[in-house]
Amino acid sequence: MATSEKLSASQSRSLKITGEEIWKNKTEKINAELFTMTYGAIVSQLCTDFQRDYNKVNDQLFSMGYNIGVRLIEDFLARTALPRCEDMIRTSEVITKCAFKIFLNITPQVTNWSPSNDAFSLILLENPLSEFVELPMDATKQLWYSNILCGVLRGALEMVQLDCDVHFVSDILRNEPQTEIRIKLNKVLKDEIPIGED
Amino acid sequence: MTDKLILPSTSEEQSNVSTTGYEYSIGPKQSLPNEANSPYIPSKLYSESLVYKKQQVALSSMAFLFKEMISQIYNNSKSSSEFESKLLNYGSSIGLRLLELLNIRASVPSNTYSRSSTFLSSNASNPSSSNNVNSISNTSNPNSTNLNDISNATNVGINSSTNINDKNYESSESLASLVSHMRCRDLKIIDILQFMHGTVWTYLFGSPSNDLVKSSERENEYMIVDHEHMLTQFISNNNSCDYFVCGIIQGFLTKADFPCTVTPHSNNENGIDGGVIYLIKFDKQVLERENLRYGS
Amino acid sequence: MAIYSFWIFDKHCNCIFNREWTLAADTNSGTMNSKQNEETAKLLYGMIYSLRSITQKLSKGSNTNDVRSISTGKYRVHTYCTASGLWLVLLTDFKQQSYSQVLQYIYSHIYVKYVSHNLLSPQDFADNESEMRGQGIRKITNKKFLQSLEAFLVPMINN
């Protein structure tokens, strides 16, 4: 709702088409259930390894995601050849209509813009990571099961010079009404310049 | 010493349950005691259909996740054998879940229902993956007998699966309601391996494995040949990472009561990447049972 | 068409790969990741960097006004910049107008495949602060990357 007002409809549509076209024709695919179960195996092993200290599990998932994000961005740019985004509104569109579409075949909704347009929320109506998942009771208060996504977003955005905070606000796995990820821009990083040029 | 043998069998069990995970005794629908007043939202999980939705993600997402898993395990392992056994465990925890799921999905008759839920893509009968390849691997494995031409009930449903239109799919459709006859449990080694080679492989990687071969030297050894090795194609020259798929095979077969060990071997002939061979060694008891039941 | 040399710069202004083919007749005469080319790399980077700064000033901050190629009397410099700050630079003769597809291919099919997707390859070639801002020393040495890059570019060296 908010996005179509903020970004011209034609720009928004063309990103949507780009994302769908790449997903359809230029992406090798694999069974989502294998992906889901592999992630499940990772999370459950981490819960055991950290003796059910879910804050540690969250941190570990985030850092795994970060490691993925800083590499995944190159894959993303190679597929889309998109230039840097001029503002967060366009960034939000690129993330949902292109990145989520190409890698996970879902398109989250963008909503809850901050007044200064530097923070927004992604609402995940579907989440391939958490299919077939029910959290054990002791985890529902602390564990952010899909926290790897926040790490991926954080790492990938940092590589295009957007220093952002990314965190989960709610998750249907915790019996909350929706799955929401908050992304807030801290600052736009400056490109490095070689010594002697400044 | 002998005192320790007499333990009340329940006491330890109970403490275990309360610290790890679900309270099965209460059941999943209960909320925590201290939030009894909070609104109850039932987990969708139990009402969701198990009909295969054919959903996909990008291979590169899977590759990135796989690599991060590898490095996570690698960093926590002191030796390569520890690494391999850990990775094998990840895989086997997936494999053992697949047995029942794929069995019931494979029981759905593919021709009677328009929105068939067989999970095999319509190009499963890709000729390059069965006929041509057999001749190649026959030459490379002169000591082996080829098993692919043995006709088997498990493969009947594969090639006739209809394409379902994802948009027509109704989530409320119950998988069980589509099944009139459960397919028989696989009791013979050859049957369960055919199921692995055809159905499981198609489910995991989109097409049957390239070949299924019986060793002529040892009668408890079988090989699944996979030229694609989809997950490890980005990882060079080392079979260690293939222990994940070994785990899937091993978990699946062990759950089906065919205990075995599975190891990966590279199939490089003359420097050409021929993919991976998964060597399946069944435990002695499996062969003994097979001889008792079917031996002449 | 003929190509003379190929360079990759990372976001820390470091040259992380260079390959030079000097003699058209003898492909073995070239250099790879040579230290002798460090000075050239810095000059090349500086030239593109300055031009980029100017074009971006001229277009009032819009980042779509990118430098694509620079021509001199004897050769042409083709550049391909990614949003992540990677620069791929190819020096060629005049016969072909644009090498952007070639560079795009190298990025998406060779760099991404053998560097980004490769767990054992570093993702960031600067280990610490002192290796940033053009002071870096690390290069891409990964065999598969070198092999496939070579296989892709060598047919273009002559003619």
Describe this structure in a few short sentences.
Chain A is an alpha+beta fold and 198 residues long.
Q: Structural class of the helices, strands and pairings of chain C?
A: alpha+beta
What is the CATH T-level topology of chain B? Muramoyl-pentapeptide Carboxypeptidase, domain 2
Number of helices of chain B: 8
Q: Would you list the SSEs of chain C in sequence order as H and E? A: EEEHEEEHH
What value does the Rg of chain B take, in angstroms?
22 Å
Give the DSSP E fraction of chain C (strand runs of 2 or more residues): 15-25%
Percent of residues in helices of chain C: 25-40%
- How many structural domains does the protein architecture of chain C include? 1
Which SSEs are present, and which pair or pack?
The complex is a heterotrimer of chains A (198), B (296) and C (159).
Chain A: H1 2-6, H2 9-25, E1 29-31, H3 32-49, H4 54-80, H5 88-104, E2 109-111, E3 119-124, H6 148-159, E4 162-170, E5 179-188
Antiparallel strand pairs in A: 2-3, 3-5, 4-5
Helix pairs in contact in A: 2-5, 4-6
Chain B: H1 11-19, E1 56-58, H2 59-75, H3 80-106, H4 127-140, E2 144-146, H5 175-178, H6 189-205, E3 211-215, E4 221-226, H7 243-255, E5 260-266, E6 276-282, H8 284-294
Antiparallel strand pairs in B: 2-3, 3-4, 4-6, 5-6
Helix pairs in contact in B: 3-7
Chain C: E1 3-9, E2 15-20, E3 31-32, H1 38-58, E4 69-71, E5 76-81, E6 87-92, H2 100-116, H3 143-153
Antiparallel strand pairs in C: 1-2, 1-6, 2-3, 4-5, 5-6
How would you characterize the overall build of this protein?
The complex is a heterotrimer of chains A (198), B (296) and C (159). Chain A contains six helices and five strands; from the N terminus they run ααβαααββαββ. By secondary structure, chain A is of the alpha+beta class. Chain A has one domain: 2-Layer Sandwich (Muramoyl-pentapeptide Carboxypeptidase, domain 2). In chain A, strand 2 and strand 3 (119-124) form a beta hairpin. Chain B is an alpha+beta fold. Helix content of chain B is 38%, strand content 10%. Chain B has helices at 11-19, 59-75, 80-106, 127-140, 175-178, 189-205, 243-255, 284-294; strands at residues 56-58, 144-146, 211-215, 221-226, 260-266, 276-282. A five-stranded antiparallel sheet of chain B has the order 2-3-4-6-5. Residues 1-21, 112-118, 120-143 and 149-171 of chain B have low confidence and may be disordered. With 159 residues, chain C is of the alpha+beta class. Chain C has one domain (3-156): 2-Layer Sandwich (Beta-Lactamase), CATH 3.30.450. Chain C has three helices and six strands, in the order βββαβββαα. The mean pLDDT of chain C is 80. Chains in contact: A-B, A-C, B-C. Chain A: Keywords: Endoplasmic reticulum, ER-Golgi transport, Golgi apparatus, Transport. Chain A: It comes from Vanderwaltozyma polyspora (strain ATCC 22028 / DSM 70294 / BCRC 21397 / CBS 2163 / NBRC 10782 / NRRL Y-8283 / UCD 57-17). Chain A: This is Trafficking protein particle complex subunit BET3. Chain A: One of its GO terms (molecular function) is guanyl-nucleotide exchange factor activity.
